[in-house]
Predict the structure.
Amino acid sequence: MLACTLPSDTPVTLGLAAPSETALIEEVAATLAGHPAVSDHRRFVHAVLERQKENPPLLGNGVALPHARTPAVKEIVFAAARCAEPVLFGETPVRLVFLFGVPPHRIAEYLAMTAFLARRLRDPAVLQALLDAPDEASFRQHLQGS
Amino acid sequence: MSLPAGTPAELGTSTRRLVRLRIWLAERLRVGDSQLTLLWAALVGLAGAWTSIGFKEATEWLHALLTGGHAESYVESFKGLPDWKRIAVPAFGGLLAGTTLWLGSRYKAKAHSADYMEAVVVGDGNLAVRVSLVKSVSAWFSSASGASIGREGPLVQLSSLAASLAGRWLSFPLARKRQLVACGAAAGIASAYNAPIAGAFFVAEIVLGSMAMEAFGPLVIASIVATLVTRSFYGTEAIYPAPVFVMNSNAELLAYLLLGLASGLLVPVFLRLLKAGEACFDLLRLPAPARLMLGGLVVGGIAIFHPEVVGNGRALVYSVLHGPGAWQLLAVALVCKLLATAATFGSGAVGGVFTPTLFAGAAWGYLVGVASAALFPWAGLNPDYFALVGMGAFLAASTGAPVMAIIMLFELTLNYQVLIPAVIASGAGYYLCRSMGVRPLYGEALERKGAAAVAQHLATLKVGELVAKDSTCLPPQASFGDVAKAFLQSRHDSLHVVDASDRFLGIVSLHDIKPYLDQPELESLLIARDVMHEETPRLAPGHTMSEALDLFSAADVGRLPVTAPDGSFLGAVTRSDILLFLAGKPRSAEA
């Protein structure tokens, strides 16, 4: 299994409110708008929304991992958000959103990152800690683990 | 936003274990097309053997019906016939054989090849069923009625036909279909002569003109399986059990060298005689029934005085190897047999001249041995041994396949001591004929079928003609679990991703996903599109074989997708198919 470390500059937004799945994704993606690795923000968001249409990546327990492999990013970019109220992804209520973009050729890192997040977010203790985290730093710490 | 149309199927524990086992096996056992071809070759060998056994038994039955007896050999049964019947049986058989060809001429092959050599060398591995059956039935009448011709032709034809039908039924790509037909031909020879290795060499040397392992391995497997089945039916004895061969001194090798040269001198005469027979019958401009009946009449006429000329000559070979009697009588028998073979062959009877060639070699070898023993009485030369070695030398020189001839001699007689003299004599005969520019027996046949067209046809063949359909393509939306399951159903290490409008999108590599197969949560998060490689090398249908091989070498993969100029997915080509095709190219096409 490949080791994975989340980017240290991961933007984290707590208490986000959005009327819909699309709006929520756009808001989380907006936190990466000025990121040097995002070469075309509009294309990046479009790619994530297109990927949602094909098969929305929902982990269960109110966790969504919208993502896309797209040339609109030069490096792996990642952003996290916690909603104040659940937002419906189809019929599934979601409170935690972990959005990431991966350059097309970085398949191995992409798989490693997805596997890391899925494994970590399957742990009920981690999930509860993320839901209870008082601030962004604490949220990042619980997400990354020791 | 919509939810997925269906919840992706979760991988159960047992499926996950199977996928892991699949990966474990893939990493340790590289089971590719080459290995699978061996399996098909074995099945073709099995089918070839049974078609050969069926033909032999049917021929024996018809022979007994025509001659009214069950003698040990055709020669013996003809010896027991009155004179009029010795003429009538071959003539009637010729009439039936000719009528069969005449009636079957409306099935003249158009799209499909009608000859086993042509199918392997020129065609696409698709033998014409009706034409092949017509030729086999005609050969059945000829063989059973005592025509002086070998049975290997129809045996190879039927065996190759069975292989061709299997290849078509399995929708094999061109190269593998051609390889299967070649395996069928090898199985036919092997079961006809109880000679597994020689059967493979016959096709490799004469038909394919290549000893490349990609092509040769399956031929050996098909030959061995065919021989084993045939032996279980007819027994394991050598077809021509020969006296124990003894060499007293190395100086005798010089005599065998001279025998090889003498064989090399007679072969052009033998081949010219066959051609002359054809030319004579062509002059008569008779329809097939009359032509083949006339051929039968000639054989029957000779059989009144020398009944030993009937049949393929197997009994004659046996008698030469086990005390042929006075050399003068043998010389007469040789001349009569050659005339009978020329008449049968020239009349257009379907069959082969393999066994008549063996007899000519054995008889000529014996006569050379008698002459050598008379010239060098102090050397203690045994003419019987010359007969044995002469078979191989004559076969090598006339077929242009010395390795096959040497191995055939060894397998026919199961006599190991004869090997070194056979190598020397066969080599001498072969090189003498080649230096005289003699076209070998089967080379002549191929030449008539258009060797130039062979080269031209092969030079223009492109990747598009080797494409095989791919039944394990993935849609881009396939879940991670479905991708893992698809790998279970495929023996390839990468799968093609194709969208609903048949557009090729990329490949998913087993190597990429294998570390994550124990994470069931990924099944709902990832789809095939997420993990596919878009920038993958691909072939176009217009690529030449050489360009394809270059691409395979650069990509270092076993299989590449083939896409049309508009990006639509046509199928895949494996490296094995390209290598099989190149290995099966005749020498004439390499220039």
Q: What stands out?
A: Chain B has three domains: 33-240, 252-455, 463-583.
